[in-house]
Amino acid sequence: MKKLSFPSQLFFALGVFILMFFVAMSFGAADVSFKDVWLALTSSAANDNIAIIRDIRLPREIAAIFVGAGLSVSGAIMQGMTRNPLADPGLFGLSAGAYAALAVTIVFFPAANYFWTMVAALVGAFLGALFVFGIGSAVKGGFSPTRIVLAGAAVSTFLYAVGEGVGLYFKVSKDISMWTAGGMAGANWKQLQVIVPVIILGIVLSFFLARQLTILSLSEEVATSLGQNIFIVKVVLFIIIIVLSGASVALVGNMTFIGLMIPHIVRALVGTDYRFILPMSAIVGAIFMLFADTLGRTLNAPYETPVAAIVAIIGLPFFLTIVRKGGRALS
Amino acid sequence: MIHPAAIKKQRIILTVSLLVTVITVIVSMGTGHASLSFDRLIQTIIGQGTVKEELILFSIRLPRILITLLAGMALALSGSILQGITKNDLADPGIIGINSGAGVAIAVFFLFFPVEVGLFAYFIPLAGFIGAIITSIFIYLFAYSKHNGLQPINVVLIGIGFSMALSGAMIVIISAAERTKVDFIVKWLSGNIWGADWPFIWALLPWLVLFIPFTLYKANRLNLLGLNDSLAISVGVSIEKERIILLFSAVALAAAAVSVTGGISFIGLMAPHIAKTLVGPRHQLFLPVAILIGGWLLLFADTIGRNLLESPIPAGIMVSIIGAPYFIYLLLKK
After folding, report:
1. CA distance A162 to chain B (A)
2. In terms of DSSP H, where are the helices of B262-282?
3. Residue A327 — φ and ψ, nearest 5°?
4. Distance (Å) from the alpha carbon of A41 to chain B's nearest alpha carbon
5. Which region among A167-176, B7-16, B238-247 has the lowest average model confidence (pLDDT)?
6. Which residue(s) pair with B144 in the sheet?
7. Contact between residue A285 and residue B142 where contact means Cβ atoms under 8 Å apart
8. Nearest to A174 among B169, B182, B309 (CB)
9. CB A95 within 8 A of CB A156
10. Which residues of A touch B158 (CB under 8 A)?
11. How many CB atoms lie under 10 A from the CB of residue A16?
12. For residue B138, with 0-12 CB atoms within 10 Å meaning exposed, 13-18 middle and 19 or more buried, which class applies?
């Protein structure tokens, strides 16, 4: 099969994205027509369906889009930077760090608003990542994929224990689990106003570093010999990873496997150049989350099937394939 | 042929760890929120205590001490085996999916299968055990490939994958449940020593009685499996068969322990490590030490957790808090 050129692939992906967006907007416990969706987005007309779209479904799908995009880009950067096919924010201790930080915030700063909750999640993600990566890069020659995944698992176990301990001791386990399992349902405009700009900033910034990331993904020696300042590039990329995954966790809770899965699919489509991988990951990630969320809302309507469950069910086989094929899922 | 000096050193370390364990047991018997002071301890043991003192010692503290000791031993042994067969010193039964398998099974059972109150206490560990076994069967099936047989490294990675997916499922199950039920499940997950009663001790003991001698008997095979595969084959080890048998022992031990104590990680990671640092990597030598240290670690963590704050901290959390710094130290050292 002849591969399409990148612009046409991008164009095609955007088409699918827009289609998926409309599908996501119109399917659900209350089915609304495409026409209503269109009216709600473009005009000031008002009826029940339009109200549903504007106040419930739109914020939720926007959350899905940005979380999907954010986690996928963050996963792609991690995989490129560490040259580790198994990299994923959930597997590397970032989600667990954000979880522990959320637990602490809920207990000690119950009055914290969205912004500060997000900051807390970011700090938590940073600490989690610092444990795993920082230690990984302190070791000469870095870690093998297996070793870093084990390190991530152990650090996650520890941070979840901290979160659980805090939750149990102050009797807020339920509130914390609501936060982390909430998925997109809890998303509202106020939250989005704070978090979405952060995610957009992170993604856009990552595009500027895509070239450097591609070189870095080959080998550090190559990057150095081509005159890159590896240290600065790595630090900036590291910050982007944390911002993207921390903000995503703050918005919808823990989502493992998205950051793992999407970049692998994308690489099969566009190759190994991160100038193509990153934008494509953002779009495909957004499509995937819209799809997962729509599935969650319609499978067992009017009850919701939590997105985390759907993602885990789709993601696990994917992870297994990558492990079995020794790093390549689709190629 | 093991050098006599190494054996002598091992004997000394074994004696010391036994001594430390006994001291910790005594301290643990004498501390807690109910009053049973140290000077009353001996009289209570020889049967001259008051009814209340006997109740505290024989029905509350002693079973808990024994169960933590036994569970710690089982986890340490399980971790030693896993590290041996995967050739990876970071393997731990808790990290590779056994805990979360047991956890999900218990959550599902607790929420959806109402059982008589009297039987409930016994069904919970049973559900956990079944969950852990089913999870490990899945892990095994996915890690097995026709061409390469059972790849130990894949066991670890796939275990972690399962662990993550199951944790996701867990959050989902919890979020749909009532507040009080959530508290119960989270407590279980964080390893609050659920089955601190005599029947559970009798349920856990046979596993240890069976598998400790068995693993020691297999010690030499474990040594060989730790070398490279072709070498092990060339001296006549049927690596595929040995791996499966040993993997099964590790899973059974961990599942039995976790089903009565709740989710506890890091013991299986730490104990073998400390033991190897003390007496070297020979399985014959370090296994007994690792088993003792594992029992002691969990007992120690639980004793602190029970007494540190007003409301007790689950042992699993205490272990994680002690274990994580050690783990980081390990990573940095390599």
Report:
1. 7
2. 267-279
3. 115, -25
4. 32
5. A167-176
6. B150
7. no
8. B182
9. yes
10. 319-320, 323
11. 14
12. middle
Nearest to B157 among A138, A146, A306 (CB): A146
Give the minimum alpha-carbon distance from B319 to chain A in angstroms, rounded to a whole number. Answer: 9
The pLDDT assigned to A331 comes to 42
Closest CA to A256 of A320, A313, A196, A191: A313
C-alpha to C-alpha distance for B318 and B302, rounded to whole angstroms: 7
CA-to-CA distance for A235 and B297, rounded, in angstroms?
38
pLDDT band at A1 (very low <50, low <70, confident <90, very high): very low
**What is the distance between the alpha carbons of residues A49 and A30, in angstroms, rounded to a whole number?**
8
- Banded pLDDT at B242 (limits 50, 70, 90): confident
* Torsion angle in degrees (nearest 10) through CA of B181, B186, B188, B190: -170
Q: What is the mean pLDDT of residues B13-34?
A: 84
pLDDT, tens digit (0-9, with 9 covering 90-100), for B168-227: 777 777 766 777 777 777 777 777 777 777 888 887 888 888 888 998 888 888 888 877
Q: What is the mean pLDDT of residues A120-137?
A: 79
- Count the residues in chain B: 334
Query: What six digits make up the tokens of B56?
Result: 């505290």
Tens of pLDDT, residue by residue over A296-308, are 887 766 667 777 7
Question: Which residue among A138, A173, A253 places its CB closest to the CB of B183?
Answer: A173
Burial class of residue A169 (count of CB atoms within 10 Å of its CB; 0-12, 13-18, 19+) = middle
Residue A329 has pLDDT above 50, yes or no: no
pLDDT at B12 over 80: yes
Report how far residue A255's alpha carbon sits from residue A240's, in angstroms, rounded to the nearest whole number.
Answer: 18
How far apart are alpha carbons A22 and B55 in whole angstroms?
67
